[in-house]
Task: structure prediction
Amino acid sequence: MAGSDGIGVGMVGYSFMGAVHSQAWRSVHRFFDVPLAPRLAVLGGRDVTKTQAAATRMGWESVETDWRALIARDDVGIVDICTPGDTHAEIAIAALAAGKHVICEKPLANTVAEADEMVRAAAEAATRGVRSMVAFNYRRVPALALARKMIADGRLGTIRHVRAVYLQDWLSDENAPLAWRLRKEKAGSGALGDIGAHIIDATQFITGQTITGVSALTETFVKQRPLPVEAAGGLTAGAVDSSKPVEYGEVTVDDAALFLARFSGGAIATFEATRFATGRKNAMRVEINGSAGSLSFDFESMNELWFHDETVDAAEGGFRRIVVTEPTHPYLAAWWPPGHGLGYEHTFTHEVADFLTDIGNGVDPTPSFADGAQVQRVLHAVERSAAESSSWTTIADSKG
Ligand code: SOE
Result:
């Protein structure tokens, strides 16, 4: 279904994100009428045996163990960065300088300074027709794209409340090993940057507003964890060698982050991101209340959007379920008949479909690196607010 032109993709990293991105690159042109058909040209990873095994499993034509060599290849037109945050800036800036379009996993970087450098590199590259995008895939959940449209169409009136949580539980076991996502120098922050970044981006995307200020609280419940023998990705923390005495390392990021926020259009908001919500696996939930109605979404039922229309007679009010599987819903015309829902991986297919379309049409994709840097500023503000206890009032001091 794609146009006759192809483009080679070089992807760095092959863990959980690498696997879902691979699936997207493999299938996108078979479902979407994209102007460029991607070729899975080269997979990058440090360990040649593991990288080759991943390449064979996921359909990549070749491997490189040095990301600089991957970028330098003539058959690579797009560089896809699926590594931990500590390498995003260096790889992205080098790839953009080499004239390669870049899609980079979230959060964009580990610091605001790095994110700003990436924004500068992207702006300069755009003058040469080189495109970039940060991979906030939840924007491409059809129900959330529909929510944005309904809000833009005025169906909710004035937005007053934004309520967002992202709940996982893969670290609630205090003996779970010290995965890379628990080390500040690798990941930047903990639940905050890993999953809090998603709800920050998604709520700003849905409402069309930006966060203007925060008041935050973060916690690290388990301060030391067993060192893993082998790193692991995704929602597993890796393995511990039980034949030896257990060695422990410091957890240097937050386990949970909670914050209040104000949005540019006047809405007030609450956010919560945690990996300790036992029983919650990937509960990314958003509720928006406006003067004319409300919307509610839970990723664990991602094909549904709940809508309350405040403008109808109260006798017929209340939340009703919109099953977001109609061909008229965002992205759905490319997929299955109504009622035959989509899954997590489809959000990545939508993401690369939009990216390839924008490259082909010569327009700058969204979310841009500038959008990613704005989220980075919110993350930084949350960390700063949590570190400054000035606005914290202990009950013992609350007299009079
Ligand atoms: C781990 O918490 C993780 O894989 C995140 O890094 C992803 O962005 C999220 O989609 C699922 O959970």
Residues 223 and 251 are 5 Å apart (CA to CA).
